[in-house]
Amino acid sequence: GELFLLYQPLFSLEDQTLVGVEALVRWRHPERGIVPPDEFIPFAEQHGLIRRIDSFVLDEACRQLAEWISCDGWPSGFTMAVNVSGRELSETGFASVVDKAIRRYDIAPQRLCLEITETAFIGAWGEMQETLADLSTLGVRIALDDFGTGYSSLAHLQRMNVDIVKIDRSFVENIGRSDRDRAIVAA
Question: Which CA distances in Å does 181 have to 44, 72, 132, 168, 175?
Fold first, then answer.
């Protein structure tokens, strides 16, 4: 009961309208206060707890999305992005878990975007291909997060069944000062 979600807004660059959010998990520790995910997710992955965290985040994000989109005047294309661990994505039956969540809350599948980091694909590509295909068949969108930090190349993108490529912040944080970064992101 100590985990909770924060929502980072996503805006359209074209018209500055709110188009979605990304769900971000945090831990409200009774003594340490708010603990960021980079301090507890690696531990959870190493000790077999990440599946429970991913399940909580997916369920809570879908519940919140359903609540928001039921409000009058809510943007029609509003989406919820949820980070998923590579370990969870390589588990048999993960697409079924996602399908149950979107059905439970009566959410159009295209409103849900699952984000997978580039490094999650290293060494587990084979196991993930079937799950990615199943998720795509459901209509859920897939985003490749932090692209450019691992071993990916444009050749890998041809084989990955992803809808969105999110360029790592190391390329975009200096985009106004670096012609090289600007050229890489433009490409």
Answer: 34, 41, 30, 11, 6
